[in-house]
Predict the 3D structure of the following.
Amino acid sequence: MPELPEVQTTVSGLLRLTGCKIKKTLVYNRSLRWPIIKNIETCLENQTIINISRRAKYIIVQLDVFHLVIHLGMTGKFTFSEKNIPLKKHDHVEFFFEGTDEILRYNDPRRFGSIHLLKKQDSLDDFFLFKKLGPEPLSEEFNHEYLYNKAKSHKQSVKAFVMNSSVVVGVGNIYASEALFMSKILPSKAANQLSKKKMITLVDCIKKVLELAIEKGGSSINDYFNTNGQSGYFQIELSVYGRENLPCNICKTLIKKITIGQRSSFFCSVCQR
C-alpha cells in the first residue's frame, strides 16, 4: 500500500498541473472502494486546479468550487500519458486539460482507492474520512510531549500505537518498522512503557525515516510507481523491513519477523530492546 512518502511523491509529481483547467473527465469504472459519483464529469468540467496537497495518505486537489479528495488504496497510481497511447488494463479515470495533449490517468488493479468530490465551502476537517485523523508526523504538533501523553493510556504495542491514524497519520508498516529499528525500540513493547527519553528518540526517528523516504522517492515494495512511471527506490535503504533471516546491518544477528496487529513486523532482537 502506498504510504505517506509515496503519496507525497505523487503530490509532488502532480503539482505541475497547478493552474491547468480540466477540459474533460472520462470515467470507465466507478466501482472503487466508494463508487465515484455519477455527475463528477459535469462538475469537473472547466474547473481550474488551484493547488494540490496531502493530508495523511489522501491527495487533495483544490479546484474553483470543489475539492477532489483521492486515496490510492493498495494499488492506485496516477501517470501522465500522451493521447495516442492506448489505455492500460485497470485505467479507470482519465483527466484531459486545456492547452495540452497530455492526459492524467488513474490506474488501480484492486480498486481499493477512492475519488471523492466535496464542495469547496464544506470544511475538509468535517469530511468523514478526516474527522478522526491525528497530526501530521512532520508537523510541529507531532512531538515527544504529545506522543508521551497520548501513550499513557495505551497498553498496545508501540508498533500498533504509531500506526494508529488517530494518534499520528501516515506512519505505515514499512516506516514504523524502520523508525523503531533506528530508535532501538522493540516493536512489541507496550507504548505506555516508553520513557520520555525514548519518546524523544522515537519521534525524531519517525521524522528522519519519512523525510529520507520522501527524498528518495518512496518505496518500490510491491508495485508503487510515481507519476512518471518510475519506481521509488527507498527499499535499498531498508534496515529491517522484509529482511527476515538476513543479518542485521549493525550486529549481524538475523532479522526476525513477528505478527503485530495482523501485520508483519521485522526487528533485530539484539539492537532493539
Summary: The chain has two domains: 4-126, 144-267.
